[in-house]
Amino acid sequence: MLFAYTYVSHAMEKMQAFINFIFFEVWCNAPIGLPFSLDLFETEPDLREVLSAFGFAANAPKLGKQFYKDIKAIYELFAPLTPEQVDQLKQWYQANNEIEKVCANDPKVKIARYVDIADIHPDLSEQLASFFKGLYSQQLLDLAALREKIGQLDKHYEEFMRANTTGKCPFCGLGDIKGVHHTRREAYDHYLPKALYPFNSINFRNLAPACHECNSTYKHSKDPARNKAGRRKAFYPYTTDFPGIEITIDLNNPDIDRLTPADIQLTFGPAAVHEEIETWKEVYGIDERYKAKCCDGDAKDWLEQFRILRDASGFTPNNYLDTIQQQTAKAPVANSNFLKLAFLKGCQRAGLLDAIAKEGGLVMTLCPRLYERYVKYEQSHWRSASKLRIIASFMCGISVPARTGSGHANWKRKNHERSE
Predict the structure, then answer these.
(1) Cis peptide before 270 (omega within 30 of 0)
(2) Helix 13-21 and helix 45-56: axis angle, to 10°?
């Protein structure tokens, strides 16, 4: 994760408050033996009104009826549980909603998945899964009886984006996030997947907007809190103490046109959050995505920008890196600056920036007037610039390479020997 979101309180949190009441005050008291009725919700009048509309109104919507039936069915499954079993479920419910502590892998927080509940009571696990997986549903939350009490999900998103204005996905830094100027919104990702974990599917501490690539292509139902080896640490999306991520890129192959992911080495820091970084990389496919970015057209364009600044303003490699460093310090994820800077530093260590700097200097020295004309023409007629390369080759007796082509080192060596 490259940065944390600012958490935004909203009326939608009342839905989680409703679920808290249902769990602790209704289901956990089922063993007392009282029959299920609206009287059980007397101390939570707003919830009672919702259930009355869903359970007894003649025109009750289908999803509303199912909501009421699920609550009643779970109540009946709680009724025969022992006090010890109820206490265990209470502990799991509380733990699953302590999202920040779960991410920190706090040993005192014993989380539970549906498979853990199935060990105690398979039928209860199945019914809880049906209820909580369907709880986060736009169609359910938009039902009038609920909407009047908790507000709208789209309004929450709008307020959320007014407080979080980077416009980029914090989980990758590459994908755009729709904001207040869009008529559509991104999906909220269940950080602890609702397919695996009960009790927190409507907890907004467990809900964070993510780009489509992160949410649907790479993460799916991957579990940030656990892998095959057991529990693990993960970044908390709403932390107020995010450490910042350090990225170093080293290139084994200086030929950018033939660069492959196998030629790229990525190193992440700081070491203090190594476990969280490893989780992040695995869950969101970070290595694959960042290496692919360094092999595509964007990375070649980052080098082309240096050539343009070299020709137009006499930029040296240090000038260019200093400029990108300033841009990154001001806006790390804008235009993938965080990755751009790491990539260009890797190019500098591989000698590519120095080679590009000397490439321009040699042609300018050998044929300055034609080179000046070539630069001006190339900036406005990129596709036709190859004609001027041919002219330069003929008039100066040298081979002027294409700006995105390979072989700069060989070209420089051969023509330097010829100039002598």
Answers:
(1) yes
(2) 80
